[in-house]
Amino acid sequence: MRKRVILTAGILFATVAVGTIPAQAQFLKKLGKALDKVANAGNKKTSDSKVRQIGETVTIGDMTMKAYTDNPGVGLNFGTCQRQGSQVVITLQFTNPQSPQPMEIRLQNFDPNPVKAYSASGQQYKVSQICLGTSKSSEGVTNTISQKSYLNGYIVLSGVPENVKTIGKLVVATSGHQKMDASNRFFSFVLENIPITEKPTMTDKGISPVEIGAKVSALPQQVAGLYDKVTSNTEEDMDGEVMTYLTFTLAGQPKLAATAGSDGVIWQVSTESPDVVVYVNGNPYKVGDKIATLMRERGVRSDDEYGFAACYGNIDVNEDINGTICSFSIGRY
Questions:
Q1: In terms of CB atoms within 10 Å, which end of the chain has fewer, N or C?
Q2: What is the per-residue pLDDT across 130-156, written as a single tens digit (0 to 9) for each?
Q3: DSSP 3-state percent helix, strand, coil across the chain (nearest 5)
Q4: How confident is residue 189, by pLDDT bands cut at 50, 70 and 90?
């Protein structure tokens, strides 16, 4: 199997090529012996985060799965695995690299062919939400990948203790169907030892610890994963009030900015970084995402009075000329 790494929209994806697996009965009848031979010859015990080799047997709980390929089919790019409290959001990108036709695919968290996730000790986590493109559900979704194109999505896991730093195994089993297919195709992807990252999140208060009402003097000089340097500039505004403008950078890259009044209290926070996430109805959005997708969310509204492209609670959103989100901010003049 070939593995490659690509950079898509600023996010690093590990891309894996896998193929179809027939329905279980047919698979066991026609291909079991051949796969056993491949599995026995090629099994490897891995400790890093990787997809199992084609033909390897993977046992997860009471389920044993084998990856098999005979014709090119759906591919899967694993993206990020990030924590939101007791939930973990894993981003995905399904691809249809070689097919001359669109492929309809389905993901679900119930039998047959469920999406499942486990801890390193084998404890199963609840799959509380599945998203493919604009389709999302707490149980299962169906969507179509255009020919030689891709479809973004994510899986939300619930009940993951905050001291857990790794998802032991993720099984993404899906069925696919093309117009000329007599029956569904079945695909299986397995990823092991997925590190959970703590992506900075903007809430209606700010990006902790840089929040509305915080004293500039009380801010830490560094916050792991958010900033390692703070620069400030003090100026008078048009009304003669002294303002302090702060810029927070990580490895030389700006991550967020804040404004404090003459009392040293922060009243405005903003970010133009794609590394900061805003959750809307549990769905992650960042700089670079389409504003039209955000506008379809419950509770998001336009704001003609102040000139913002969108607002969600106290969070204001700006867009660029391409219709993509270019900044999030909290606090108005």
A1: C
A2: 988 778 899 999 888 887 777 778 899
A3: 10, 50, 40
A4: confident
| Cis bond upstream, residue 274 (ω within 30) | no
| Angle at the Cα of 142 from the Cα atoms of 57 and 190, rounded to 5 degrees | 20
Cis peptide preceding 112, ω within 30 of 0: yes
Gap between the Cα atoms of 86 and 32, Å rounded: 39
Q: What's the confidence (pLDDT) of residue 99? A: 64
DSSP character for 214? -
Is the CB of residue 280 less than 8 Å from the CB of residue 293?
no
Pure H helices in the chain: 24-30, 32-42, 291-295
Tokens of 219: 């801010």
**Dist. CA 249–CA 229, nearest whole Å:** 5
Over pLDDT 70: what percentage of the chain?
72
| 43 pLDDT above the threshold of 70 | no
Model pTM score: 0.48
Confidence of residue 124 (pLDDT cuts 50, 70, 90): very high
Q: What is the mean pLDDT of the chain?
A: 75
Percent of the residues in the chain that have a pLDDT greater than 90, as a whole number: 29
**DSSP-based three-state secondary structure for 330:** strand
